[in-house]
Amino acid sequence: MPEFKTSDIQRRIDVRFDDKQYTYDRTFFIPNFSKDFHVDFLPEGGELLNTTNQIVAFKALGSDGFSKEITGVILNQTGDTISIFGSEYRGMGAVSISPQTGDKFHAIVTSSDNVTKQFELPEVKNDGIKLAAVHYKGYIRYQVQKSENTVLPDTLYLLAHTRGELRVLTRITEQNSIGKISDKTLKNGITHLMLLNSKGMPISERLVFIKHPPTDKWEIITDKKEYGKREKVKLNIAVTNSIDGMPLPGEYSISITDNNLVKNDSLADNICSNILLTSDLKGYIEAPGSYFKDNSGKTERYLDFVMLTHGWKRFKVKDINKLPDINVQYPVEQGLYISGTVKGLFGKKNKAPIIALAPTQNILQMTETNPEGRFMIDNLLFPDSTTFVIQARTKKGFATVDITIDSTAIPKTVHKIPFSNDSVQYMDDYLANVRDKYYNEGGMRVINLKEIVVKGHKISQENENKSIYSSVMNYSIDSEDIERTNANSVYDLLGTIPGVQRSGNQIRIRGNNRPPVVVVDDVMYDAPIDEIGQNENSFGPIGGSILESIVVSDIASLEIMKGSNASIFGSAGSGGAIIITLKKGAEVKGAPSPGLITIRPLGYTQDVQFYNPKYETPEEKQESTPDLRSTIYWNPFVTIGADGKQEIEFYTSDNPGSYHIVIEGISADGRVCRYVKDL
Question: Is the pTM value of this prediction over 0.90?
Answer without folding.
Answer: no
